Structures are given as C-alpha cells and as structure tokens.
Amino acid sequence: MGTRGSVTYTAPVPFGFSVHAVDRESRARRGAITTEHGVIDTPAFMTVGTRATVTGLDPDDLAAVGAQVLLANTYHLMLRPGVELFRRVGGVHGFMGWRGPILTDSGGFQIFSLSADRTVSERGARFRSYVDGRMHMLSPERSIELQTAIGSDIMMVLDVCIDSTSDAATTRAAMERTHRWAVRSLAARSDTQTGDRQALFAIVQGGLVPELRAESAAFLTQHSFDGFAIGGLAVGDTREERQDVIALSAELLPLDRPRYLMGVGTPPDLLHAMLAGVDMFDCILPTHLAWQGTAFTSSGRVKITRAAYARADVPLDERCSCRTCRGSTRAYLHHLFKCGEPLGARLLSLHNLHHYQALMTEARRAIEAGEYARWARAKLEAIDRHEHGARRPGRRLEGAA
Amino acid sequence: MGTRGSVTYTAPVPFGFSVHAVDRESRARRGAITTEHGVIDTPAFMTVGTRATVTGLDPDDLAAVGAQVLLANTYHLMLRPGVELFRRVGGVHGFMGWRGPILTDSGGFQIFSLSADRTVSERGARFRSYVDGRMHMLSPERSIELQTAIGSDIMMVLDVCIDSTSDAATTRAAMERTHRWAVRSLAARSDTQTGDRQALFAIVQGGLVPELRAESAAFLTQHSFDGFAIGGLAVGDTREERQDVIALSAELLPLDRPRYLMGVGTPPDLLHAMLAGVDMFDCILPTHLAWQGTAFTSSGRVKITRAAYARADVPLDERCSCRTCRGSTRAYLHHLFKCGEPLGARLLSLHNLHHYQALMTEARRAIEAGEYARWARAKLEAIDRHEHGARRPGRRLEGAA
Fold this sequence. Notes:
The structure is a homodimer.
Chain A: E1 3-4, E2 8-10, E3 15-22, E4 29-35, E5 38-42, E6 44-48, H1 59-64, E7 70-73, H2 74-79, H3 83-89, H4 92-96, E8 102-105, H5 108-114, E9 119-120, E10 125-128, E11 135-138, H6 140-150, E12 154-156, H7 168-191, E13 199-204, H8 210-220, E14 227-230, H9 239-252, E15 259-261, H10 267-275, E16 280-282, H11 285-291, E17 294-297, E18 300-303, H12 323-327, H13 330-338, H14 342-368, H15 372-389
Parallel strand pairs in A: 6-7, 6-16, 7-8, 8-12, 12-13, 13-14, 14-15, 15-16
Antiparallel strand pairs in A: 1-3, 2-3, 3-4, 4-5, 9-10, 10-11, 17-18
Helix pairs in contact in A: 6-7, 7-8, 8-9, 9-10, 10-15, 11-14, 13-14, 14-15
C-alpha cells in the first residue's frame, strides 16, 4: 500500500486538489481535482478537443472510453466560432454538450507554432487569423478575457514558447517574459467578473537549462496559482533531456497543487513523468495516430493498413474491452481504412483513447497499492520489447517509443 | 382502422412475408419480412451501407436510429475486401458486426453507372476493377455465387440498367436480357449449396414504357422469386413519370411478396410509393446529404453551413428526439462543418437516418389506423410548403421536393 497523505488545496474558486496516496518507491501520487463540473482522478490523461470537438467523437463516446476532462484551445476558439458566441450560449460546456471539466490552453503555443504574420512584444502577440485574414491581438489579459467567456474550469496563462533547444539567452528572455505575463494573467483574473469561477495555472519554462527551470519554478510558485504546468517540452528535445527537466521541475513544485505536463504523451512519456509526480497530461497522439491508421495495443503499435491485417479475423487487441475490440476485427478495420471510410478512424480513436484511459486507471491502482515504480518499470520494458525487441535486441529502456 | 389481411408467404429459405393491414383509401400496406437475422417491419427504409459500412456510423448507432435492415453492394465488396475474405469470416454479418438482416444489391447498377472498360454480353459484364485495375467478370451466376459468400439475407438478381429515358428498342432489349438473367440467377441459387439460406428478388425493368413494365412484371412473376423490385428509376426521369411507373408496376406484382423500389428515396418519393403499395426502400440521400451539411427537419431541409446558423442556439429540429437534436445546437453543428470536423457529418447522418426511420414509423402507424392516404397527403403538402411555399406560392403538390 502507498503512503496515505492528507495534502489538500482549496482554491478561492470552485477548484480543489487533494492527494490521497503516494507511491512507496517513487514520487508518483494519486489524487483528485474537484471542479464545478465534476471530479478528475489524478494522474489524469486529458483528451484533446482543440476546436471544442474530439475528432469524430461526441461527448457520450468520450464518457464511454473513460474520459473525465477535455482540453480545448483558446487560439482556435477565438478565431472560430469566436468568443461572442460563447458569451451568448453560456460557454463551451453547453456549446459542445460536454458536462465534465474542461481545461483551456491559453493559445501561447499555437501563436508561436502556427501563426503567420506574427509580431510579439511585451504587450502580447499580434497575428493574422487563418479564418478570415484579420489581425488579432492576444495578450495575457485578452487570453484571460477569452478563457473567461469560454468558461473553462481551468485556464492557462499565456506563455512565450520557443524551441527547447534555443540558446540560453533566448531561453532566459522567453522565460522572463513568461513570468511577467503570468503575473499579469493573475491580475487579469482578479479583474474579471466571472473569472472568479475558474482556476488558473502557471507554466514553468526555461528550456533544457536546469538553472532556468529551477528559477522559473521558484518565481511562479511565489504566486497564488491553482496549479503549475511544465511547458516547452516535446519541441525538439530527446526523451532523456525531457525526463531530466520533468523530474527537476516537478520536484520544485508545491506538493498541494496539481502538476501538469503539457503536450507530452507517448505511453512511456506518461509512465516516466508519473514516476516524477506529474498529475495531468494531454496529447493529441491517441486521436492523431488513429486518423493515420495506427492503434496502440497491449502488444505494441499496430498500423492497420498493413496488408498483413487484410485477413486478420481477430480483434485489434485481444486484451482490450473497448467497443471497437468487442465489435470489430482487424480485417474489418483494415477494410474501412482501405476504403477511406471515416468509421475506421472513429473506431481506432475510440480504442486508442480507451487504451490511454486504461493505462491511467492501472497506474492509479498501482500508486494506491504503493507499487507504481515496479509496475511502471515492467510496463516500460514490455512496451520497449514490443516496439523494438524483435527488431533491435539489446536496445536500452530509454529508447522505448 | 385499416383492413386486416391474412396474406402470408413462406419461402423455401428462412424468409417469409406477411401483410397485417391494408390502408382504407390506398394500396398502402403494413407487414413484416422475417429473415434468419430478424424481422423487418414494412414499409421499411433500408439504410445504405455499400461497402459494409454506413459512413461514420457503427452497428450500435444504426440500431439506435431505428434501422432494422442494411443494404450492402456486391460490386463494391467483390473488389474490396474480396469474396474470399467473406468465405473465411463467415459472411458480412460477422465482418461488419451487424446482426440484423442485410440485403445485397447484385452489382448491376454499379456495373452500368460506375465501371470503366466495360463490355456487356449475354454472358455477363466484364469490367476493370477500380481497386487494382484487374479485369473481372460479373455474370448472373457469379453474382449469386458472390452474394452467397457474402451471406446476405436477401439477394438481388443481376439486371441490365439503362437510362430510364432510353429509346423503346434499347429499353426492350435491356428488359429481355434482364429477364433471361433473372431466370439464370434463380437456377444458380438452386445450384448453390449455401444459397438455400438466402432469399432472391427479381427486378422489374422496362424504363418509362407502361407496356414494357407490364410485360416485365408478367414475365418475372411467373417464376418463384421471394420478392420483386422495381428498378431503373431515378436515372433521368421526373417524379411524375416515376410515380406512374411505380403505381403501374406495384399493381401487377403479387400481393403475397414484398415490393421493393430501388434507389428512389426523397421523403415525398417514399410517401407516394407507399400509397401504391411499395414495401421496401433504399436511398443514399439521408447519409449523402448529411456529409454535404444538409439535414432533413420537420420544417424542411436545413443547410447547416449557412451563416444564418452560426449563432443559432437551438436544436437542429425542435420536434426531433434523436441524439443529435438532444445534444447539439445548430450553432455547434455549423461550427463543426466550418472546421471540417467529421463529427458534424456524423451527427447529421444520425439525425437524417432517424428522421427517415421516424417517417416510416409514422407511416406504418397511419396504415394500421387505415388513415395512410389522408396522413400522407397532409405530410406531402407540409413538405411542399416548407420547401417551396414561401418562395413559390401556388406551386402544385407534384413538385414537392
């Protein structure tokens, strides 16, 4: 059994976090986030619904695969359908029909990775809309205003995103601006009438430089954020570099606030980060790969379009209990992809999301039992064996894909 | 109350048809087809799943919208995944996970409408596969062999399809070959070991020439087919021409066999054909239009991509009880289509199929009550008013779209 804890955080908004158990041999922890729209068991994998939809799936589907919380994106939603609509319809929950918790990213990452015609100043970022070509301003204050109208349960501060491999001076400058923007975001929430219903998380930056990460965590944790994210990873870094930064950052974050690793999410990434005490994850991988015909299974990744599966009269994953595995064979899924039929991607999405949620359920049980470290290492070795074992014997664990 | 009847047909295969009630003022009739995979209440609208999938929907979805029977296509399935797979996996039911009745079209219509490099002779049709470029032969015997392997509950004879507006000599020649092919199909079923589990329907042809239609019905009904289809319509003809041929053909078909109008299916088409005593329908319209963003509603067709719906915080159809109308607003559906998100087409497909099934349920109740003719005329007038009323007052009923 893991160590039972009594760490609890109650925010001035309808948001709380409590840790129920900590693993015996790692920092992995089992807890719960409470929001106005329900409870999120942690560690949690958040399903990505960028444009207020998870591609091809509706809220009932998401509930069926075990999703408790969705992630939507301020950048995309401000451009389409536009924030005025959210003010009219009372926020994103009613708009998309999802009654559970929703976290909104601030748009920072998208401004820096997707926008054309972008000018960034201390005030914020000006960029051109991909929808209608008009110029928009996204400042820390504007992002809070938008997220307030969208009505998410958890808002993120606008941050400055750069390649994790940028030079130290660039990385420091981005980090320092991120800090100033975080403080402005916090002030903006206090000014915003309805923002007092929504939690606000800060984002630790600092690239791959340990000193900067430590400085960032030290600065941000002096302020009354409801949670802390680790940002700026999976943008050019290796898995080993990433793991070091995650372990270092997580350790410097307060015990009583949720820790959220942004946008990093192969199963090995999740397993490693939970060892370091990360509580929340999001990643487009399960749905993104599904639309490309790739499934996560208990015996490794399966590319369903391969000719080998054309006659495979067996479920996608014999050990999976999801609707897809109960109702379809590999041969049928292969057929759907070969025909370009969207049902194939839908069935693979349902399966992949179920696979991720099942992994998280297993992880939470292992933490409760105090056996997470052992369980996770066995799981990582199994994944490594499935992905590389047969082809590249002797490959080390760190290379698990 | 309609006239209670005792018309019953029991086939030498696990197939039967009985008529329970006939409308007071029309030939509309209420019955049931029994198959090895379940009962089909008639009049029935069959959902089109050409490639063993209804675009974006799985069997649970189809059951939820009230579908009792699906239509799959021999032409598409012989090319992909190929008939060998069906032999291995025990037919289309297990392959796609649909446990209810399935009807397969013979491939006749597709050979004539889709195939490149096609040569038709008395023996059958040679054509080039769109999948791998290889030449295939589809003869009446081969179609039965394929449909036997596919394992549908109802097979269709291979027929010769031409434009309904072809000249009389062409139409007669196509009809006479269709007759010879029908007789060969019947013989092929007798020769086929497992074909004795499957019903076989003939197809009345003869274009828009009343004498040929009568001759075709007279010829085919001399043979022991389990049902009779009316083919060759909605390929260049007007609704009025179609209605005349349907009324004429249906009247010449035996009372104790199901009558199936192939590929004709706007709601007014269905309402008119039921008046003439048609029992079965299929049409791609509800799913096809859904993928283009068009919904059937109780107040007419709605093109959801229109700017007018961007802020419409109301259900697609206030009077509909489907999952889409309970869970989504027009504004959300508009957003999904504007983003190119496939969930939009899925939700519209679910709604449109529910709309069709609800129409059929209402029709069956009206026949049972003996009030079909009156109910159908009121429904046709309402549809005409919604589609054309405001724009073109005074337009006559026949023009209903």
